Amino acid sequence: MATSETHLLKDELDIVIPTIRNLDFLEMWRPFFEPYHLIIVQDGDPSKTIKVPDGFDYELYNRNDINKILGPKASCISFKDSACRCFGYMVSKKKYIFTIDDDCFVAKDPSGKEINALAQHIKNLLCPSTPNFFNTLYDPFREGADFVRGYPFSLREGVPTAVSHGLWMNIPDYDAPTQLVKPCERNTRYVDAVLTIPKGTLFPMCGMNLAFDRDLIGAAMYFGLMGDGQPIGRYDDMWAGWCIKIICDHLGLGVKTGLPYIWHSKASNPFVNLKKEYHGIFWQEEIIPFFQAATLSKDCTTVQKCYVELSKQVREKLGKIDPYFVKLADAMVTWIEAWDELNPKK
Q1: Cβ distance 164 to 212 under 8 Å?
Q2: How far, rounded to the nearest angstrom, does the alpha carbon of residue 304 sit from its chain's CA centroid?
Q3: Could you give the residue ranges of the DSSP H alpha helices within 25-149?
Q4: Site described as Required for activity, positions (predicted)?
């Protein structure tokens, strides 16, 4: 049973869950999640009733609620795609966000102990990151580790951590082609490590086990236009990851990956996934070089300013690949406008 010591930041953190089904999976997470506030974003048919186990403190938003709250700006929130979760980021009033998918269960470490994923994410976020110089003992702020010989003393304070990216046991987060050629592959490797992703290095962010400091990077944690009516899906979290990494590098913030693990219980259909990813598999060969070359001006001193400037570059450069990116660039601006309306500066 979780102890009170593990319920860190219970008044400063929201758990955001996108779903189309009853949330029975929360029973397994009850010892870890029950003290926290949940924001549930219901995708799909808004007339369907989603059942939440008793004892949880939550608010639930469906598509009708999103349309009512955002009005015309609701067009920036994806429909029939887990990207709808970012609406929860927008309406939260807390400093930290943890988001998890409803097919993710509690994993166990090699000793058989249940892993409190949320507590590990909080540890990651509350300790500095070291993006400017790689430490070969990984996270120097973990118990039993430190900076190795040769690590510059001037860089040992690190930088604030904006994002904590967790991993998965059992079903790996593979794209459709990899799923098709490795249908039976399961991840059984538990690597006891947390790393800061170096400055200038992109990564494929997965949104199913993710935490972030909403005050530091929330306004850029937009999962794009995916799903219903869009030519692409399953790139929502990765799009957000590429954007936030460029902005974190520019603003001097850190991104960590590694622990904690969750148990990913269900493999999605690779043929359905291939239809969703088809354009993205081609487009990413141009999207990645775009982000690798992207720079932000000195005038970009806030996340919002960074994100709007990035949207202009998306329109100008990626818009040549497909008209979808012009639409996406517009949605990025709409997202920032909606964010600022719901989150006026104090």
Answers
A1: yes
A2: 18
A3: 26-33, 63-70, 86-91, 117-126
A4: 149, 156
Where would I find the H helices in 172-302? 176-181, 214-217, 236-251, 270-293
pLDDT band at 258 (very low <50, low <70, confident <90, very high): very high
Question: Encoding tokens for residue 193?
Answer: 């490590």
- C-alpha neighbours within 13 Å on the C-beta side of residue 98: 27
Amino acid at 202: L
pLDDT of 3: 44
Q: Is the dihedral of CA 186, 191, 195, 201 positive or negative?
A: negative
Average pLDDT over residues 133-159: 97
Residue 126 backbone phi and psi in degrees, to 5: -85, -10
Q: Side chain identity at 297, as an amino acid letter?
A: S
C-alpha–C-alpha distance, residues 248 and 254, integer Å: 6
User: Which amino acid, residue 263?
Assistant: W
- The C-alpha atoms of residue 322 and residue 320 are separated, in whole angstroms, by 6
Q: pLDDT-derived band of residue 337, with 50, 70 and 90 as boundaries?
A: very high
Model confidence pTM above 0.85: yes
